[in-house]
Amino acid sequence: MPLREHLRELRHRVVLAAAGIAVAAVLGWFLYPPVIDALQQPLPRATDGRLVALNFTGVATSFDMRVKVSVFLGVLVASPWWLLQLWLFITPGLTRRERRTALAFVAAAVPLFLAGAYLAWRVLPTAVALLTEFTPADAANLIDAQLYLSFVMRVVLAFGVAFLLPVVMVALTAVGLVRGATWLRGWRWAVLLVFVFAAFATPTPDAITMILLALPMCGLYFGAVGLCHVLDRRRDRARRDQLAEAA
Fold it and tell me: Where are the domains of the chain?
């Protein structure tokens, strides 16, 4: 395909992906009231009588907040659609086997990312409760709404990306850059880094919440190591068969 046709196809896929996000953002607009209520729900429980509330500092801040939340929800809800557009753009240049492999990675990445985002949503109230407990008695903690939304989005994205680690591990093994034995030898460092990440991602005074996040990530790591070993055995078997046929 000439370069001009590639650019036209890219523009077509980008337009379709943006249209899907826009449609999902309209749905997010109507979901804004329950979502913003859910975001504010941890604040009163965390205060013990102290005044902690979201603060909208400008005339148009509430409208801007609703637009940002709607777009954020649109990106999450429409993720299968824009990932499909990305897939349809790259698939003509792949072989049949490469298409199956890439499709498997996309099919695994979407539920893993959503699982990480859901876990972040479950952990978020505890994190907010801890961070607002430091508000002195008889004082007001008026949290800027825009900054609070950015905090929530960073936590959700951090958890979602963290759950994509197994996909990255299997992908590196599939292309022959890292063998499963290498991942297995570094399991101690991997577990240590997982618990360090869980400690920073869940700033709570108890170790239970940290363990609830770290254990699924460790399970995903060792599950990915098992898949990498399967890929290595298949590659080694295919290499031995090729050498036998050449001999």
Answer: 1-157, 164-247
| pLDDT tens digits in sequence order for the chain, 247 residues long | 666 777 888 888 889 989 999 999 999 899 888 888 877 776 755 555 567 778 888 788 888 888 888 988 888 888 778 877 877 777 776 667 766 777 777 778 888 888 888 888 877 777 777 777 777 777 777 888 888 877 787 777 778 878 888 888 887 887 777 888 888 888 899 899 888 887 776 655 557 667 777 888 888 899 889 988 888 888 888 888 787 777 6
- What separation in angstroms does the CA of 179 have from each of 87, 100, 112, 158, 175? 26, 21, 22, 26, 10
- Check: CB of residue 210 under 8 Å from CB of residue 191: no
Tokens 């599950």 -> residue? 223
| Residue 136 dihedral angles phi and psi, to the nearest 5° | -65, 155
Taking the C-alpha atoms of residue 33 and residue 82, their distance in angstroms, rounded to an integer, is 26
> What pTM was computed for the model?
0.71
Q: Which stretch of DSSP H or E encloses residue 94?
A: none
Q: How many CB atoms lie within 10 A of CB 63?
A: 11
- State the first-to-last Cα distance of the chain, in angstroms, to the nearest integer: 40
Q: Which residues pair with 55 in a beta bridge?
A: 144
CA 31, CA 66: separation in Å to the nearest integer?
10
Query: Quick count: other Cβ atoms within 10 Å of Cβ 246?
Result: 6
Residue 24 structure tokens: 């999902």
> Can you tell me which residue has the tokens 């999450």?
76
